[in-house]
Automatic annotation (TrEMBL):
Domain of life: Bacteria
Name the record gives this protein: Tagaturonate reductase
Organism of derivation: Paenactinomyces guangxiensis
Keyword Membrane on entry: yes
One MF term in the entry's GO annotations: mannitol-1-phosphate 5-dehydrogenase activity
Gene3D superfamilies per record: N-(1-d-carboxylethyl)-l-norvaline Dehydrogenase, domain 2, NAD(P)-binding Rossmann-like Domain
A GO CC term assigned to this protein in UniProt: cytosol
Domain spans labelled Mannitol dehydrogenase N-terminal: 28-265
């Protein structure tokens, strides 16, 4: 206990020095999410601005789900944690450590909702950031109780906006700049639509919806940085190197990119670009096409395929010749032909992605990437599948194999608490997704008499995919064949060279 306290004193000292350099930091950001990505991306950027005297503000981090475990640790460490950036940047090895001091506190809204509302009423709060995965922006109907936190992120945001609207009597200047980081096309527009939809569900006054539309800015964005999070394999090594114990070490790569569609007023509020950060205030479409289709699409495919092949990390996949060939085939032969950009641009980005996948420092766990894989596949891979089949009239091998692997990955061995347990190679693993998705997958595998029936039932679910995938000629048969092969003979790849 004494050693932990001593180590915490060291990290507090480092954080205090940072805060002294930036001065006292008023709370300017309400952040929905306190996970690895936001702490290693947005909060790291805010900290960089503070250190250069460009922002002079701190972050209130709101726990997004009832099962969150970060907030108690974050508060115990006075909001301080270490970001470790490791990788290759322009041919140079980067291995840096920095204590981040921009988070003032974390709040569990399910036990301290009144604190969230007080933050929402703070006139200094000008910005909202979020990262709740693609599924986090999906519409969920829920009742409104002013004294209790809504379960969904859009519900929480709507309740906070309404509280702010009432507090400031609808003053236009009280509106927020809202910058979501979820990997959803037009994420700002989608989030505004969800807020207005929920406001309708709750029968909130028309004056409020007008204020939401005209006094708040919902910015479309695209984010790009691989953040692997806490080094759970070797924390003692990091603690020894740092000289203190930090239970929220966040490991990521040096590369980062943030594209934001916002007017000059937002740029003045949060001047990322003045801090030398790779932030682009422009149309996010070309950045999204490259990043979501290539980096995120390949990650989503890799997670389930690699896991079924007994691999634990992205690096292990890339060090396995047949799996590396599979990923390269997916990117070069199936994804790139379906992106409308100059060949030089997209090939250059694809090459950088493959280099990032081979970062020797990163332990990016496939099971972490597999969280909410169904909605990720829909957002990241389905557009490529649709376009490939429309353009070439054939089923893309790598995408069909990864879809089959997804179905096998979601095949439950049993239900446990709020997730399913699967089994591959004799080892159990958690299948984590929204309850409705997990229940459906469980029904599909239990009720169907054979593999073909299960595949057809899953492909037919328009709620999961946005359409009935059985309509794609040849897809059902090819996916069924791959699923049967994986279940009968184990995961093994052919046809990837």
């Amino acid at each position: 206990m004494e050693r932990q306290q001593l180590n915490l004193d060291v990290i507090r000292q480092a954080g205090t020095l940072n805060q002294m350099k930036g001065g006292l930091l008023p709370e300017k950001v309400l952040q929905f999410g306190e996970g690895n990505f936001l702490r290693g991306f947005v909060d790291w950027m805010i900290h960089r601005m503070n250190m250069q005297g460009l922002f002079h503000g701190s972050v209130v981090a709101v726990q997004p789900t009832p099962r969150g475990k970060v907030v108690p640790v974050l508060n115990a460490q006075d909001g301080l944690y270490t970001v470790v950036l490791r990788g290759i940047d322009k041919g140079n090895v980067v291995d840096s450590r920095e204590v981040i001091s921009c988070i003032s506190r974390g709040i569990n809204p399910y036990t301290e909702w009144e604190k969230v509302l007080r933050a929402a009423a703070n006139p200094d709060i000008q910005l909202v950031f979020s990262n709740t995965t693609e599924a986090g922006l999906e519409y969920q109907y829920e009742e409104y109780d002013p004294a209790t936190s809504p379960r969904s992120f859009p519900g929480k945001l709507t309740a906070c906006l309404y509280h702010r609207f009432k507090t400031f009597q609808g003053a236009p200047e009280a509106g927020w700049s809202i910058i979501p980081c979820e990997l959803v096309d037009n994420n700002g527009e989608v989030l505004q639509e969800r807020v207005l939809q929920i406001a309708g569900d709750w029968h909130l006054p028309g004056e409020f919806t007008d204020w939401v539309k005209h006094s708040n800015r919902f910015c479309n964005t695209l984010v790009d940085r691989i953040v692997t999070g806490f080094p759970k394999d070797n924390p003692d090594q990091f603690w020894s190197e740092l000289g203190y114990r930090d239970d929220l070490i966040t490991v990521g790569e040096p590369y980062h990119l943030f594209a934001i569609e916002a007017d000059p007023a937002v740029q003045e509020i949060v001047p990322f670009h003045k801090a030398g950060l790779q932030v682009y205030w422009s149309d996010v479409t070309p950045f999204r096409e490259l990043k979501v289709r290539i980096l995120n699409g390949a990650h989503t495919m890799m997670a389930v395929v690699g896991h079924l092949h007994g691999k634990k990390t992205v690096l292990e996949v890339m060090e396995t010749p047949e799996l590396a060939a599979f990923i390269k085939k997916a990117i070069n032969e199936e994804i790139l032909p379906c992106i409308d950009l100059e060949d030089e641009v997209k090939k250059s980005f694809a090459q950088s992605v493959l280099e990032r996948f081979q970062n020797p420092f990163n332990r990016h766990y496939l099971l972490d990437i597999s969280l909410n894989s169904v909605s990720k596949f829909k957002a990241r891979v389905m557009p490529t599948l649709s376009r490939f089949m429309a353009s070439f009239g054939s089923v893309p091998f790598a995408i069909a194999y990864s879809l089959a692997s997804l179905f096998v990955f979601y095949k439950p061995d049993r239900m446990e608490a709020d997730h399913l347990i699967g089994k591959a190679g004799g080892e159990e693993y958690p299948i984590r997704d929204h309850e409705e998705t997990l229940r459906f997958m469980q029904r599909a595998w239990q009720q169907s008499g054979d593999v073909s029936g299960a595949v057809k039932m899953i492909l037919a679910n328009g709620t999961l995919w946005g359409e009935n995938l059985n309509q794609f000629a040849g897809l059902t048969d090819q996916v069924s064949e791959h699923v049967s092969d994986i279940l009968q003979s184990g995961a093994r790849l052919t046809g990837t060279s």
